[in-house]
Amino acid sequence: MGILSHPDFRRLWAADLLSQLGSRLTMGAIPLLAVLTLNASTFQVSLLRTCETAAWLALGLFAGAWADRIRCRPVLVYTDLFRALLLASIPIAWWFDVLTLAQVYAVLIPVGVLTVLYDVAHNSYLPRLLDRDRLLPGNAKLAANHSIAAVVGAGAGGVLVQWIGAAVTIGIDALSFLWSAFWLRSIRAPEPAPPKPERPNLRREIGEGMRYVFTHPVLRPVALTTTTTMLFQAASNAIIIVYLVRGVHLQPATIGLLSMIGLLGAIVASGVTEKLSQRYGDPRTLLLSSTGVGVAFLVQALTAPGWMVSWYVIGTLLAGFAIIVSYILQVSLRQRLCPPELQGRVSATMSFVSWGAAPIGSLLGGALGTLFGLHATLWIAGAGALAGNAFLYLSPLRHKALPLPSVTAPRRPA
Asked: Which are the contacts of 129, defined by CB distance < 8 A and separation ≥ 6?
């Protein structure tokens, strides 16, 4: 039977789908709100993504150590509820005609903090809910949520922004977080309390997670490649909406529909990753998919007015496919290699080094876009994302057969 026959995973999956759909609406609506309603500059738009992701730099590692000490499901419920309240303030302020760019920044910073806590707890919770041999299909289903949300959210987001406005679209995201919290609350399986360390030491516990990642022959190159790719991907994402509106002269609905067509690759990826892994092996599939991400951003850089808008669709199609395949394999590999007592810290370390690059990349994209122009910045971002794959090609992943090290936790000093 399929993984959705597991009733509690089905509830987790439904909550995640609703949350992802709402987040995708906001991902497109926030920059459009800044560009079309608040008349923000290129650099001011790039700061939006920086505010949303900066929490990974400040809290990512601490969140991992924290998640290994506590039950994770209550964290998922409460972070959804608080994100709903924060995001609801944007359409309310817009309704009373008092919305400013400063308020949007002020909302995105705590939303980013809550998102860090949610994401780390979510990655730590899945291995507590499912047996180890069901993690790959479980991650594939959750990745399918990313794909569906990316496609539906991108298309619906653009149409909704043009139809009801960006602020009201963000309000729909707030409602999606409430509905997600309801499904998470309905999970019935009790979550066992993780064993508490005899002598809690946050610095030592964070260090154990970082040492596990950066001394591991497989996880280290994966982390370095993901960090480099995320840096340049964030630079591209920070300015792409501005470029499509001001450089290619597209309407919000058109941007949404073109993104929806391109992101169909993500849905395909979530359905075929397991088969690709079985046929070609995890190492080769991971190498090719990660390389595909860099190629996709180079293809997007070909986008220009007229028929050359089709390059945006092709690049987005390839990026959606490659990112999802790479994500499923990376997360499943990490969860198989990592001992249970280190899942939160290793997950947080991997998220810290990758998502921690996002706010820096967003600032880089805004700065480069201001100095050299939006189109040139897209080329720089694509070249950088492709070059980051050198870490994987110089690692044990270049071999067809990859021996997996035994799952052991690092020894603690006496």
From this structure: 8, 9, 12, 187, 189, 191
Contact 213, 341 (CB under 8 A): no
Superfamily of domain 3-187+202-398: MFS general substrate transporter like domains (1.20.1250.20)
Q: What does the pLDDT look like over 315-338, one tens digit per residue?
A: 999 998 998 899 888 888 887 777
pLDDT of residue 413: 43
Please answer whether residues 87 and 171 qualify as being in contact, where contact means their C-beta atoms are separated by less than 8 angstroms. Answer: yes
> Cα separation of 206 and 66, whole Å?
9
pTM assigned to the model? 0.71
Distances, alpha carbon 110 to alpha carbons 53, 56, 117, in Å: 10, 12, 11
Distance CA 324, CA 54 (A): 23
Helix (H) or strand (E) run with residue 158 in it? helix 135-164
Task: Locate 96 and state its tokens.
Answer: 């009373």
| CA pair distance 366, 238, nearest whole angstrom | 7
The two structure tokens encoding residue 331:
């997360």
Q: Place 414 in a pLDDT band, splitting at 50, 70 and 90.
A: very low
pLDDT value for 407? 42
Distances (CA, A) of 276 to 76, 280, 289, 363: 32, 6, 11, 36
Scored b (16 or more CB within 10 A) or e, 57-68 reads bbbbbbbbbbbb
In tens, the pLDDT along 272-300 reads 888 888 888 888 889 999 999 999 999 99
Q: Is the pLDDT of residue 4 over 70?
A: yes
How many Cα atoms within 13 Å fall on the side-chain side of residue 231?
A: 18
Q: How many residues does the chain have?
A: 414
Domain spans, the chain: 3-187+202-398
